[in-house]
Sequence to fold (533 residues):
Amino acid sequence: MAAVTAAQPRSSKTESYVDNKRKEDIRHANINAARAVADAVRTSLGPKGMDKMISTANGEVIITNDGATILNKMEVLQPAAKMLVDLSKSQDSAAGDGTTTVVVIAGALLKQCLTLLSNGIHPTVISDSLHKASIKAVDVLTAMAVPLELSDHESLIKSASTSLNSKVVSQYSTLLAPLAVDSVLSVVDPAKPDMVDLRDIKIVKKLGGTVDDTQLVKGLVFDKKASHAAGGPTRMENAKIAVIQFQISPPKTDIEQSIVVSDYTQMDRILKEERNYILGMIKKIKATGCNVLLIQKSILRDAVTDLSLHYLAKAKIMVVKDVEREDIEFITKTLNCLPIANIEHFRVEKLGHADLVEEVSLGDGKIVKVTGIKDMGRTTTVLVRGSNQLVLDEAERSLHDALCVVRCLVSKRFLIAGGGAPEIELSRQLGAWSKVLHGMEGYCVRSFAEALEVVPYTLAENAGLNPIAVVTELRNRHAQGEINAGINVRKGQITNILEENVVQPLLVSTSAITLATECVRMILKIDDIVNVR
Fold:
């Protein structure tokens, strides 16, 4: 009996048993869920990456290999896995490109963290070491980068085509890359040379033709036809353009009311009043010399009626109706005019001027083009064509990525090699640095360095090469001092990637590493999930 009592733990205030099993289980579940998401997009990394076909609930089909789009369309329920979806969104808004890379790096870091945790290293120690390693990584990348001038058109086009080469529309990169560079450079404001607002570049999609027919338009394009009612004009030279936000139609009562008309004379009076009301408006419009009207879509009542279109056609005024509310800001900025909210405010100084406004037939539809705009704002329009809706949507997404790449280069003017070269160099330098560090930190930094090898490994794997042989050869080349040696997927061998024109902005790589590390640190720190009903 005495032996039994001695075996029981003494309950002192300093000793208490804590069950860590649940915390470990939750951490492991989080890491495994996030890694599953990373593995889903891993095959679409690089120029030889596979494409994903996404079928949405409403029967829509999307074909893409853009990491942000794939993850956005995924219905992820696990909270930690959702963090990876948000991670790719942050990379998309920070750099625009590298959305797949950032998720793949995060997945590799989490895999390394599992090993470190199972070795008994505390999550806080791992988290702090990862933070130190990511700061060091950014320094190493910055030291590798090559400075760039915006006048160096060639290098800008190279980096845009590198971004496009991993997309479905890669065969059109020779056309889309210069187009992306020209459109971004045309909207750069000399007063704020480091800032580019991509909302100043409007992408208009029009079905028909091929991606080859995509063009840059110095002016405005409306994906709708001019109003043909009553034989109105469809071409106008020396145009004076008004953007109006009011309706050219007879007024309605504010609330649902019915007016009872008892005889024909009253009926005639109503119609006569309506005609006079509309005529009065059109006379005021014509008095300013305006000959093109862009009418905003109205939800209250018809923006124009058949009667008003008839009178506008007689007054030789060209009409484009149903202009979307969100396009008004872009249109007024381009035309350098002011939107007019009331007929009483219709004045000459609020009009925009252009040499030509005409309706053009494209494929099976028509568009309205405005060219030769006087005092045009710093905006540009890209008209994207495609043989079917899938190609059209993917061309738009790819073009957006290319525009973002050029925007990165405008804000941070440094280029870096692609093809897995920076990751291997980082891995080598951080590996060497980890030997200098003491204790657990060294282990964690070494794991971080190993995790970065996932990018060249995946690039080689997706290109059908032997990943182990390729990564080993890469390490060897970098150890000999060839810091720009990378995987040339076209030739299936290792070459100097800068000479092959495979370049990317520094900002894409640095933001991928800092964002991935930040996300992994956050997942590591979570030790419990509390569901609140």
Residues 1-9 have pLDDT under 50 and may be disordered.
